[in-house]
Specification:
The chain is built from 18 helices and 16 strands. The protein is α/β, with parallel strands linked by helices and 437 residues long. The strands form five sheets. It has a six-stranded mixed sheet with strand order 5-6-16-11-12-15, with helices on both faces. Bound molecules: pyridoxal-5'-phosphate (PLP).
């Protein structure tokens, strides 16, 4: 048995010591054909750790599943047949590469050059599909027939239901009841795609609770079920696997910037973080290039100091959530606090271990963007550029006004999804507050 929100809270010291000793010995890690000294490597080590974050804390019943994944994922992801199938589906089905668009009017407003990485233009409307395609190809190669997933904003649920329809696989999606209500268009899409959507009524009925329920399902069906986690969270190898599958974003940014700016690296990369997958994809190929300033926008909710927030990096303490050692918003007894954000996809009390490490080592600047700041930023993008962003992406846009740019700075900001699912929330925002800026 495991506690409601956590897996095993066992003794982690040994693994952490091992990870640290690798660091001290200048352990070399081979990654995407680049030999990197882990002293300057912000990617995962061979034990599944990012510094002191990560690992795999799973109940006994899942050990075999997680172990099987750990042993197979790299071999499959790096095989020619997987690479070919993945690349073809990303091109012909998702519509990649997604454009890198120079937003002229937004640039003028902030006094620099702002490019938008348009993940909102992908099939199903967000970056989530990159990951679900990769993981369903892996699940098929592992002989699994039944797929489960958790979802917050519904974008990962829709992306999972979509690839299950494509591959003719059974699909069950867990979604907090609060999110079922606030993102109902995505619920209808999942149902139309043939998925079973299970509303979860525990906790405050949001993403954390949906993830707990998905893990419970996995514990009951370890043999035939593959769990497609939607973000860079969960036990190793999920954070690394999801980051690799999303790394197509930064691979494309490098090429597109080279073509448009004559150099592959921007001065700033900006992305929102829920669990961290669109941010991980955006920064993956730049993470060890210290010339690039990484800015992560987390959900401040009603304000970090109000207690109604999902700003995990600002407020979290070390803990274990959903199989990973990372920052968690918790009380003094280690009980997870209910998070709050207007954005269902950022309403999570944990954070991917990769991002926790980047924040701890000050490789990334982490900003909290409150609900109202995000909504104003969404309206600003809509009216300056004619692009309605997802509420999650609006948090990345809300970071712009908190930064000081020089005129020749090149900024790449990932628009992780489109705002169709959020129109009601946008329209319910008091219009007079938009003009009081
Ligand atoms: C459009 C969009 N952006 C961002 C996120 C946050 O997830 P992540 O941090 O994994 O990118 C979500 C989650 O549902 C989303 O739907």
């Amino acid at each position: 048995m495991y506690a409601a929100h956590t897996f095993i809270r066992g003794n982690k010291t040994e693994k952490i010591q091992k990870a640290l000793s690798h660091l001290r010995q200048g352990f070399f890690h081979e990654h995407n054909n680049i030999q990197q000294d882990t002293d300057m490597n912000y990617l995962v080590d061979k034990d599944g750790y990012y510094g002191e974050f990560g690992g795999a804390y799973v109940p006994e019943i899942l050990h075999r599943c997680v172990d099987e994944l750990q042993k197979n994922y790299l071999q499959v992801l790096e095989s020619d047949s997987f690479r070919q199938e993945f690349a073809q589906l990303l091109r012909d089905y998702v519509g990649r590469p997604s454009p890198l668009y120079l937003a002229q009017r937004l640039s003028r407003k902030y006094g620099c050059k702002i490019y938008l990485k348009r993940e909102d233009l992908n099939h199903t409307g967000a970056h989530k599909i990159n990951n679900t395609i990769g993981q369903i190809l892996l699940a098929r190669r592992m002989g699994k027939r039944r797929i489960i997933a958790e979802t917050g904003a519904g974008q990962h649920g829709v992306a999972t239901a979509t690839v299950c329809a494509l591959m003719n696989m059974e699909c069950v999606v867990y979604m907090g009841k609060t999110d079922v209500e606030r993102q109902h268009i995505n619920v209808e899409k999942m149902r139309m795609l043939g998925a079973t959507v299970v509303p979860v009524t525990s906790g405050n009925m949001t993403l954390k609770d949906a993830t707990n329920e998905a893990i419970r399902d996995w514990c009951c069906h370890p043999a035939d079920t593959y769990y497609i986690i939607g973000s860079t969270v969960g036990p190793h190898p999920y954070p690394d696997m999801v980051a690799r599958l999303q790394s197509v974003i930064s691979e494309e940014i490098r090429k597109q910037l080279q073509e448009q700016e004559g150099r592959p690296n921007p001065d700033y990369l900006i992305a929102c973080v829920g669990g961290g997958s669109n941010a991980a994809g955006t920064i993956y190929h730049y993470v060890n290039d210290e010339r690039v300033q990484i800015v992560l926008a987390e959900a401040g909710g009603k304000g970090v100091e109000t207690g109604q927030t999902a700003a995990t990096i600002a407020l979290g303490k070390m803990g274990i959530i959903h199989g990973s050692r990372t920052y968690v918003i918790q009380n003094e007894d280690g009980q997870i606090e209910e998070p709050y954000s207007i954005s269902a996809g950022l309403d999570y009390p944990g954070i991917g271990p990769m991002h926790a490490n980047l924040a701890q080592r000050k490789r990334a600047l982490v900003l909290s963007v409150n609900d109202d700041e995000a909504i104003r930023a969404a309206y600003e993008l809509t009216r300056l550029e004619g692009i309605i962003p997802a509420l999650e992406s609006a948090h990345a846009l809300g970071a712009l006004e908190k930064l000081q740019f020089r005129p020749d700075d090149v900024v790449v900001l990932t628009v992780s999804g489109r705002g169709d699912k959020d129109i009601e929330t946008y329209l319910n925002f008091p219009q007079e507050e938009l003009t009081n800026q």
